[in-house]
Amino acid sequence: MEVVSGTLVVMVSVGDRTHISDYTFPRLANWAARHGYSVILIKKPMTRNGIAPHFNKLIAHRLAPGFERYIIVDDDLILKKHAPPMEAVPPGFVGLCADVVQSNTEATHVTWTGNTGFIVSDRDGLLLLEEAFHDGEYPFKSGDGSNKAIWGPHDQASLNNTLFKHKKAYQLDARWNYQAVIDYYARGKGWDVWRQSKYYRIRYYLSVFLNPFGTHRENIRNAYGIHMTMGLYPKFFTKVHK
User: Tell me, what's the pLDDT at 5?
Assistant: First the structure.
């Protein structure tokens, strides 16, 4: 296989998700261009029917083989315009940011749970992504009595299992993948209140928008990338995360 020098940045946005990627992909492409990285947007699924679309991230490199490094990003992650160049990951390791939720992982070999919204891998690390893809859905769930659960659905549990099994997980700076909404309710009143209380949700967005010097706005300001999980308002985050 011919080796292509440099870094490829990949956003995976399978399905009718232009209401998100129209905001997030241009920001990603601008960041990549600033640092001399190639960039592509993947819209067409590579997985077979019956496989969760999340697993496309683990095989996205197949569409553009040969790069030295791959940065694979969810379409609901919006990068700051002046985010720095990507930090180095040790050879053969795969870089993930720690998920905000750490308490739901029971498997003892997973010492911290990585979020797969932002993945960094060199060519050797791609073998680990492929292994997680072929393993498929992680079989153990929270509350099933196995005490082997790993937090996160689909690709997240599977990739964490593979990386920690091989001792090849590298913890990236959390600022690359800041889960703003989850951080708010995880440190506050919890998921159930966020889900049930419209007032609680509105209060968060108002606190971010109206108080530029408050804690929530400062957390966003310090982040390189905002992962909009549970808060898909890209137009809002585009305005407050520049």
Answer: 65
The total number of structural domains that make up the chain = 2
pLDDT of the residue at 2: 45
Q: Mean pLDDT over all residues of the chain? A: 91
* Residue finishing a domain among 174, 189, 208: 174
- Residues 90, 164, single domain; the answer is yes
pLDDT of residue 52: 83
What residues have CB less than 8 Å from 190, skipping those under 6 apart?
none
Nearest to 25 by CA among 10, 44, 35: 10
The list of the chain residues with pLDDT below 70 reads 1-5
Q: Tell me: the pLDDT tens digits for 102-150?
A: 888 899 999 999 999 999 999 999 999 999 999 988 898 887 888 888 8
What pLDDT, on a 0 to 100 scale, did the predictor assign at position 202? 92
Range of the domain at 231: 177-240
What's the per-residue H, E or C state across the chain? CCCEEEEEEEEECCCCCHHHHHHHHHHHHHHHHHCCCEEEEECCCCCCCCCCHHHHHHHHHHHCCCEEEEEEEECCEEECCCCCCCCCCCCCCEEEEECCCCCCCCCCCCCCCEEEEEEEEECCCHHHHHHHHHHCCCCCCCCCCCCCCCCCCCHHHHHHHHHHHCCCEEECCHHHHECHHHHHHHHCCCHHHHHHCHHHHHHHHHHHHHCCCCHHHHHHHHCCEEECCCCCCHHHHHHHCC
Do 44 and 13 share a structural domain?
yes
Question: 184 and 169, same structural domain?
Answer: no
